[in-house]
């Protein structure tokens, strides 16, 4: 059974209702998040919950001793430019895109 109406159902008109159980969804997500944390699977955490798309960077920046998010980001960029280990790590996360960016 499809969770979206078919073209025929749309043409025929009427009402379409969809029920979403947010409690179940949230509980499943919390369990998954906790499993990633317990496994120290930080790659999967960052991939699933991109920090730049949240407001978390500001408190992270402050906890690291920076005045604001902008200065934190500038320092991260500086470290990546000047530290070959950091640069190689970041490039390894980009997969094949790294080759395109470098050449």
Q: How would you explain this protein's 3D organization?
A:
This protein has 103 residues and is mostly helical. The chain has two domains: 1-49, no CATH class; 55-103, no CATH class. The protein is 65% helix and 0% strand. The protein has seven helices and no strands. Helix 4 (57-63) crosses helix 5 (69-82) and helix 5 crosses helix 6 (84-93).
**Class from secondary-structure proportions:** mainly alpha
Radius of gyration: 21 Å
Choose one word for the global shape: elongated
Please tally the β strands and state the result: 0
Oligomer: single chain
Number of helices: 7
Q: What proportion of the residues is helical, as a percent range?
A: 55-70%
Low-confidence stretches: none
Give a short overview.
With 103 residues, the protein is mostly helical.
Strand and helix layout:
Elements: H1 7-12, H2 22-38, H3 42-48, H4 57-63, H5 69-82, H6 84-93, H7 97-102
């Amino acid at each position: 059974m499809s969770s979206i109406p078919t073209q025929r159902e749309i043409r025929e008109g009427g009402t379409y209702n969809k029920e979403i159980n947010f409690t179940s969804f949230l509980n499943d997500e919390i369990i998954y998040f906790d499993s990633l944390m317990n496994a120290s699977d930080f790659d999967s955490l960052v991939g699933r919950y991109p920090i730049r798309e949240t407001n978390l960077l500001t408190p992270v920046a402050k906890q690291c001793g920076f005045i604001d998010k902008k200065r934190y980001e500038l320092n991260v960029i500086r470290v990546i430019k000047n530290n070959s280990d950091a640069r190689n790590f970041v490039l390894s996360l980009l997969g094949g895109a790294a080759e395109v960016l470098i050449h």
